[in-house]
Amino acid sequence: MDRFGWVPSFGGNISARLDGRSIAITRSGGRKGFLGRDNIIAVDLEGRPLNAGDRPSAETLLHCHVYRDLPEVGAVLHGHSVAATVLSRLVTGPAITLAGYEMIKAFEIHHTHDVRVSVPVFENSQDMERLVHDIGPELPRHIPGYILRGHGAYAWGRTVDNAMANLEALEFLLQCELETLKVRGLSAA
Ligand SMILES: [Zn+2]
User: Where are the bilayer-spanning segments (predicted)?
Assistant: First the structure.
């Protein structure tokens, strides 16, 4: 994620399920391209640290939301890419529709031959409890991820590798949409 430029400065966070009741997640702060063991903490599925004194990042609640709603998910990745940030500001509706791209088939859970998929875009907020409420109790089933407007993308999968493959596919598609808008001009948005 760092190599692709998706976690600039202290942005983004990375988590993996430990068991049915806890996850490992990057702590608040820390540059994600330079992680050591000290940068990762364990929290329960409500985002409470297992070791008192550990300080989870505010967005830990969004990761926990995914693990609670989707028991098959083993990893959640969140980055602050230029494509997700810019495109979600240009497209004003509640979703970005991706159509006609071969790469749509890359999504782990996208089994159909339909080459149109709608990526939910939720309004960004600094209030994570409100954000979880706005996203709703049921995460999208048709695509393993969503976008926070002007902020970045979340993607998940059964394993860290699966989650990364899904994030790569999503970021590739968002980058294609952004490049298309650049070539066509912003009026196309
Ligand atoms: Zn973020």
Answer: none
d(CA 101, ligand 1 centre) in Å: 27
What pLDDT, in 10s, does the model give residues 120-145? 999 999 999 999 999 998 998 989 99
Residue 12 has pLDDT above 60, yes or no: yes
Which helix (H) or strand (E) covers residue 180, if one does?
helix 160-184
Annotated ligand binding at 80? The verdict is yes
The domains of the chain are located at 13-188
CATH number of 13-188: 3.40.225.10
Structural tokens at position 63: 């990761």
What is the whole-number distance in angstroms between the Cα of residue 58 and the centre of ligand 1?
9
Please indicate if the annotation marks 78 as binding a ligand: yes
